[in-house]
Design brief:
Number of strands: 8
Structural class: alpha/beta
CATH architecture of the largest domain: 3-Layer(aba) Sandwich
Distance between the termini: 51 Å
Number of helices: 6
CATH topology of the largest domain: Rossmann fold
CATH class of the largest domain: Alpha Beta
Length: 214
């Protein structure tokens, strides 16, 4: 697990550490001779030497593999206006390309279209936990399914990926706002040669304000 920038994976790891006493590792080189290793938010290719040292290496990936392999699968699906997000528990195997190994399990969660990134992240965390716990209960009797087609691969997003067009309305760009993380990947717009970033959050009127509105 990469602890430097992934808050989501740390919450999932701590849940299993507390409930099942699973050890947490931040350096894969220290992981040896385990029956199952769950790899959370590690964005580099694991070497074959690591895969040989452990019996089964599984990676939760937030897409309906083989669709949306690679980076930022949830963000890319929301930009495609998808409201059902599927998680795939994919096995890392020697010689397989990224996110192309056998699938051991799939779960999903639904969005209604109003959720912002912090809410989407919580739903994703709960779904990761649900999927891993289900697999633990089924192990070692759960069989895997090979991926028969290559699917599509999403490139890594950057600071400019959530750029807004000031000449378009908010509704048409709301999904860009939804997937933005104000601290790491904010929504940006360019105006007169300057970049601006936008913070969006839900707001509720109190009873007095509701009365004034009427």
């Amino acid at each position: 697990m990469d602890k430097s920038k992934f808050k989501k994976s740390i919450k999932v790891a701590k849940y299993f550490n507390k409930k099942y006493d699973f050890p947490i590792f931040y350096d894969f080189k220290k992981i040896n001779n385990f029956k199952i290793v769950f790899v959370l938010d590690y964005t580099r290719i694991l070497p074959d030497s690591f895969l040989k040292k452990n019996e089964l290496v599984l990676i939760p990936h937030s897409s309906d593999l083989p669709k949306d392999k690679g980076f930022s699968p949830i963000q890319n699906q929301i930009l495609k206006k998808k409201n059902k997000i599927t998680n795939s528990l994919v096995q890392a195997t020697k010689g397989c390309k990224v996110d192309s190994g056998p699938i051991h399990l799939k779960t999903n969660f639904s969005l209604k279209g109003h959720e912002l990134w912090d809410e989407i992240t919580k739903l994703s965390i709960n779904n990761d936990i649900k999927m891993i716990e289900r697999y633990i209960k089924l192990y070692p009797n759960k069989k895997s399914t090979p991926q028969k087609i290559s699917g599509n691969f999403n490139k890594k997003r950057n600071i400019y990926s959530n750029m807004l067009n000031i000449n378009k309305n908010i509704k048409s760009q709301f999904n860009i706002l939804r997937i933005s993380d104000y601290n790491d990947f904010p929504s940006l717009f360019n105006y007169k040669g300057y970049l601006y970033k936008i913070k969006i959050e839900k707001f509720k009127l109190n009873e007095k304000e509701k009365t004034k509105k009427k």
